[in-house]
């Protein structure tokens, strides 16, 4: 199982689709449009942050279970990033430290059940791919995509939220050590708009997959 990671608008969903097609494997998504809590959260983060985390936790576990069939199945976001987002929300006073603590303990308990055997229910990824984008690129992509609730024009406080998030991601990826990992420069390779950049990115990932000996079924 390959998992994508990266900030809001980094291109995780697009790369998930491209990669799964390229590898002939399955893509697993957490649909943003069908998420009933997300618009509520952006409206009132203090009230809905904890509920949102629990919603995501459940969804990520479903995706992990559904991805078990092959080392090459691709999930559009890792379970490991949610705590980073939730901690940031708490630091910005949009959640309480107690909520973070309870969520963190629950996550730890679940992750302790992780086993490397093939039939484990919660499995460690075979590879984590991180798409790094600069803050400027992140803002451009969020604007271009145009999801109402993500727009800084509608809520100026999102500027600082996005800025801190982008900074924290770099440290998060540096310290991530649960599986092999690969970083893709999303500024250098605009794999959505530029076909040759897409080919280069897929070649980088192919190389890593070969190095790790990952196999489909
Ligand atoms: N743990 C979380 N806590 C708060 N918000 C979250 C969390 N996970 C995702 N989100 C929000 O859900 C939305 C979708 O996020 P996500 O990064 O998964 O997809 P995306 O923005 O479509 O990314 P990409 O463009 O890379 O596919 C964003 O508005 C993001 O802020």
TrEMBL record:
Pfam families: dNK. Substrate binds at residues 30, 42, 53, 77, 82, 150. The keyword Heme does not apply. ATP binds at residues 6-14, 141-145. InterPro entries: DCK/DGK, Deoxyribonucleoside_kinase, DNK_dom, P-loop_NTPase. GO terms for molecular function: ATP binding; deoxynucleoside kinase activity. Residues 2-206 form the Deoxynucleoside kinase domain. Keywords: ATP-binding, Kinase, Nucleotide-binding, Transferase. The active site is at residue 76. SUPFAM superfamilies: P-loop containing nucleoside triphosphate hydrolases. Its EC number is 2.7.1.-. It is an enzyme of class 2 (transferase). Gene3D superfamilies: P-loop containing nucleotide triphosphate hydrolases. GO terms for cellular component: cytoplasm. Belongs to the DCK/DGK family. This is Deoxynucleoside kinase. The lineage of its organism: Bacteria, Bacillati, Bacillota, Bacilli, Lactobacillales. The gene is dak.
């Amino acid at each position: 199982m390959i998992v994508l990671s990266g900030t809001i608008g980094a291109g995780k969903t697009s790369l998930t689709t491209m990669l799964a097609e390229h590898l002939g494997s399955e893509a697993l998504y957490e649909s943003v449009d069908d998420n009933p809590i997300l618009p509520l959260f952006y409206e009132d983060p203090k009230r809905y942050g904890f509920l949102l985390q629990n919603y995501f936790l459940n969804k990520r576990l479903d995706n992990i279970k559904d991805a078990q069939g092959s080392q090459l199945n691709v999930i559009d976001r890792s379970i490991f990033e949610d705590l980073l987002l939730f901690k940031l929300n708490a630091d910005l006073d949009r959640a309480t430290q107690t909520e973070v603590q309870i969520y963190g303990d629950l996550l730890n308990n679940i992750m302790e059940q992780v086993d490397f055997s093939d039939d484990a229910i919660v499995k460690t990824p075979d590879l984590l791919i991180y798409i790094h984008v600069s803050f400027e690129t992140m803002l451009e992509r969020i604007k271009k995509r145009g999801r109402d609730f993500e727009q800084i024009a509608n809520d100026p406080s999102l500027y600082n939220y996005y800025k801190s998030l982008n900074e924290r991601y770099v440290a998060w990826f540096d310290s991530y050590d649960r599986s092999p990992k690969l970083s893709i420069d999303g500024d250098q390779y605009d794999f959505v708009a530029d076909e040759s950049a897409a080919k280069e990115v897929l070649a980088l990932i192919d190389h890593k997959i070969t190095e790790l000996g990952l196999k489909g079924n």
